[in-house]
Write a structure and sequence with these properties.
Layout: H1 3-23, H2 30-37, H3 41-47, H4 51-74, H5 81-96, H6 103-114, H7 119-146, H8 154-175, H9 179-192
Length: about 200
């Protein structure tokens, strides 16, 4: 693909992301997306064979950027494993606060909505979530080695924490109250710290 092709494709994905996190995937019509992106219908089908393929590409693009951001925090040379995870989850609270413009909102928004409608989109969400869990698990392992995190099964603990935070994020959308996310942080700290 040439640079203009990549730029146009990414522009459609960026505009689509903003629409989907606001309205949901099934509520965003193709004409609405094309109008907002100021792209002709033929251009859309040049990059995506269907709306479902667009959704799958949107998820892959989201996780590509999100994992880069997570890696900056969790693969940092500064701090212990516990400090890095604590910083990551504190950032989750800051990003979740307010209007749903957070990277995580796409996962919360789409998981329940499209998992029963589209196997490729469900699989893309699962692969992305698994990648996040793997980064958390590696950080837990570093924390166990440096003594800042209690000895545990790093993968099971990482999966438990990710489940906790996704659930707290979903409930935050319902209540518009950060107390659930703050409680998730307290629970996370309690689970990780050596006794």
């Amino acid at each position: 693909m040439n640079e203009k092709t990549i730029d146009t494709r990414q522009h459609i994905l960026n505009v689509g992301y903003q629409l989907v996190v606001t309205k949901g995937f099934t509520s965003v019509g193709l004409s609405q997306l094309l109008s907002a992106a100021e792209v002709p219908k033929g251009s859309f089908y040049h990059y995506f064979k269907s709306k479902e393929q667009f959704g799958e590409a949107l998820i892959h693009s989201y996780f590509h950027h999100y994992l880069q951001l997570v890696a900056q925090v969790l693969k940092s040379e500064q701090g212990t494993g516990f400090e890095q995870l604590n910083e990551y989850f504190k950032l989750w609270i800051k990003v979740e606060n307010g209007i749903c413009n957070a990277n995580k909102c796409l996962v919360v928004k789409l998981s329940a909505e499209v998992s029963d409608l589209s196997e490729p989109m469900r699989e893309a969400l699962k692969q992305g979530a698994d990648s996040v869990v793997a980064l958390i698990a590696k950080t837990i392992e570093r924390g166990i080695k440096d003594g800042s995190i209690a000895n545990c099964d790093s993968h099971v603990t990482a999966q438990t924490l990710y489940n906790l935070w996704l659930g707290a994020s979903l409930l935050n959308k319902l209540s518009h109250d950060l107390s659930g996310l703050q409680q998730a942080l307290t629970t996370t700290q309690s689970l990780l710290q050596p006794k």
